[in-house]
Structure formats: C-alpha cells, structure tokens
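During the no-cost extension, the postdoctoral fellow (Dr. R.K.) reprocessed legacy sequence entries with the updated structure-token encoder. One reprocessed record is reproduced below for audit purposes.
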Amino acid sequence: MIKPNIKDLRTTLHVLDFFGNLAPDELKVEISKCIRQAEDTKTEKRMSRLSDDELYKYENRKKTTLRINLSDGRLIQRKTNDQTFDAALLEIGLERLATTSFFIKNHPLVLHDATLQRRRCTGYRYLAPGLFVYKKTTVFEKQNALLHYDECLCLDWDIEIR
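Re-encoded structure tokens follow.
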C-alpha cells in the first residue's frame, strides 16, 4: 500500500474544502488527523538526528506559518498565510463577520460593501462579494484577529503559528 506524503494530504484536503459540502466532514477530519500524524512523525525523526546546537537553533527559529485546528477536528492550513487566513474567515462566515469588528493599524480588518458590486478597494484584497480584507497584516496580527473572532464568536479553535 502506498502511503501518501504530507503534501499530497494537504492538497487533497484543500481540494475537498474547495468543493465544500460535496465531501463529507468525516473524510476531512480523517485527512486532517493523517496530516498531523505525518508531521509529528517527520518532526520526531528530524529532532532525533539533530545535535544539541542544531536542536537549540531549531527550537528558537522564527515561526511564521499560520495553522488553525477547528473544534470538529478539521485543519485549515494553505500554501500561504493569506490563503489560510482567508479560508478561516470564510469558515467563520460572512454574516458572523459582519457582527464583530477588529482594527489593525486604525484600519478595519474586514470591509463590507452593501451593494455587492465593488471588486476593488484600495489597501484591501477581495475575499467574496461584498467582503474585503486588509492586506498589510503580519502573521501575528492575523493570529490576534482570529483569536479575537474565536473569543467573540465562541468558535473553540486552536490557532497557532508554527
């Protein structure tokens, strides 16, 4: 039996998320578990090969990858932090985002267009019809925003930077 690698598992999860409700959530949860197990195994193997100096450098490295573990066991992690953040915001839902606000550098994180006609907004990236997200955010600001939404909306998400 061929064991899929982490990249294949992540790609499969991303494709299943793209199709939305056509794929059962149980399958997404199982793939998420496989990703976590494969990553844990890979990390254990890497750690066992490192010397003390390399281990110290590895543990103190700059962490920059955003990952969200949902309360039902699914995983949100895309190729870039922007894609991960956008997927998390879409998971929260447009209606729920409209009820809370979060500001970064005196700019609202999410802009709403009631007309649903605009496709561009200066300093913001298009996420969905009527929804724009502030572009100039760091991974830590994204994490803080998601922690804010997690607390306000009682999502029970585990939001981490790896």
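The first strand starts at residue 66 and ends at 69. The chain has a mean pLDDT of 92. The remaining legacy entries will be reprocessed before the final report is submitted.
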